[in-house]
Backbone:
């Protein structure tokens, strides 16, 4: 476990303004699009939707081509709108996020609540341009936080603490 005292790891706080909200939405959206399950879902739906009209009748080829062209941007847009709605509902403008990296746990506050969770509960940390994602060991679920809550030293500490737990 990395050595640290509470004084070396101060609580970090971010208040969501319009620009931060857009960064958070963009970060979650891009992270979601990059997940293998999202890619698999998109490819499966497109394959079925393109193949089905052709199986029914070869005369439906123009419909299949139209869907093949229109589905990818529609899918990406739908994923963006879903991320946007979800984040705006759970982290509206003016919301406060805070984290404190303790010796054995991370303390977190967000608009949906606060918790202190042992580093052992997490599998890994993923730092992206706009967000930091913590993946839980138990079910693989992800939690996203604004990137500005973590310095590079904090991320190194967090990775080491999770790895040692």
Residues:
């Amino acid at each position: 476990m990395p050595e640290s005292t509470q004084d070396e790891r101060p609580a970090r706080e971010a208040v969501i303004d319009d620009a931060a909200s857009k960064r958070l939405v963009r970060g979650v959206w891009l992270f979601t699009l990059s997940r293998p399950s999202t890619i698999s879902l998109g490819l499966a739906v497109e394959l079925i939707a393109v193949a089905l009209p052709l199986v029914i009748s070869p005369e439906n080829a123009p419909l299949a081509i139209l869907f093949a062209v229109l589905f990818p941007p529609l899918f990406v847009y739908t994923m963006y709108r879903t991320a946007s709605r979800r984040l705006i509902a759970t982290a509206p403008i003016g919301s406060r996020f805070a984290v404190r990296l303790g010796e054995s746990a991370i303390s977190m506050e967000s608009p949906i609540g606060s918790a202190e969770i042992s580093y052992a509960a997490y599998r890994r940390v993923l730092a992206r341009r706009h967000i930091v994602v913590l993946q839980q060991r138990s079910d693989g679920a992800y939690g996203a936080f604004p990137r500005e809550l973590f310095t590079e030293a904090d991320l190194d500490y967090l990775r080491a603490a999770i790895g040692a737990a």
